[in-house]
Fold this protein.
Amino acid sequence: MSTNQNDLTANIVSLCKRRGIIFQNSEIYGGVQGFYDYGPIGSIMKKNWKDLWIRSNVTTRPDVVMIDGTIITHPRVWEASGHVKNFGDELVECKSCHKRFRPDLIDNAPKCPECGGEFTTPRKYNILFHTEIGVIEGEKMAAYLRGEACQTIYLDFKNVVNSCRVKIPFGIAQIGKAFRNEITPKNFLYRTREFEQWDIQYFTHPSEMDKWYEYWKQDRMDWYLKLFNKKDSLRFRAHGDDELIFYAKKAFDIEYNAPWGWAEMEGIHWRSDYDLTQHSKFSGQDLTYLDPVTHEKYLPHIVETSGGVDRSLFFLLLDAYQEEKLESGDIRTVLKINPLVSAYKVAIFPLASNKPELVSKAQDLWKTLSKKYSVDFDDSSNIGKKYRRQDEIGTPWCAVVDFQTLEDNTVSIRNRDTMIQSRIKLDEVDKWLSTQLNSIYEK
Ligand code: ATP
């Protein structure tokens, strides 16, 4: 059964709250727009999502290393990057209801979409969050929460070159928080004020920029294609000449077909030598690279891949959410999310919670598997409810210890997507699970 696209976001928000995936932050105080917390299930999902990215982009690649930079940096960083002057959105205000809008997000409508009132002329607002370093009046230094995570990579470029045996071409990757005082946070995790980004800055010789740009553009798209179910819900969008920043020869977004239309998930950016030039200028430090073989000295050019961890995870949830009509007429809600991302790989149940011999065998299985995998254990009474809960959080397999287990030491394994049950020997579940998970990664 297909879900009405307009209801899909609402269904995800409600599922996320009901099942401990994502909560509105500070909800008991009425919440603050644009801030969300990950619950017990969501925080494991998000960790898995980031681990997958790290595995594909860092630990299985000899040419990419990773850093973990701070959120607050020297304030000059944001002058050098241009954010202090130019990090902002234009806003118009309705003269009658005083609501404010970003003209581009309301398709430059001439009248207020809420009340039909006239707009003021657009004004620019800076969306960097301000803070202070130091506590003594007169000695405090104004600072910012980073508006994009990638700047710390440029700051550490020289340190990485000098401390690790990296040679151009190579990349520095990072996953970290960014903060934007967005004027119109909306669409759940799509536009928030605090979020995480996953970035790769790939440093190349200027003559190889084109080649590496094309490489990363395709590589990132292929990665998402592997993990999303609906392949035709992903596409590239080329930035038009009017959007291209002056130093970029080209720019593409990887977009997802969200319920409200095609929306950016990740940007593949041609940054040339702009960032290192700016930081050289503002810091007075030489950030050139000396090629150890040719002895050529130059400022490397950069291909950037910059995506939103939360935004892409939200798109993954939208992609995975299904409501299926069962033969009984009931509706089954199931999250057909990639098993590598789901919070639990398997959920273990004793068929009856009042049969100690079943409970203890189920506990033994949990003990063995939980050393290697994230595994849920549920000995509540109703098996139907237990399956429903696991379907809703996307657990790919449920293992049930039943009376047959006591006879032949096999368990029933139910597949989330097909609901087909098969029997596997208790002492083979570990190996079976590991084969399943490895085969998914290798696809
Ligand atoms: P947008 O046009 O949607 O504001 P952007 O072009 O400003 O995004 P970038 O600065 O390129 O975005 O940031 C890289 C990625 O970070 C985006 O592709 C997106 O996935 C994520 N991102 C940016 N802003 C937000 C936000 N406010 N909330 C959640 N994720 C965001």
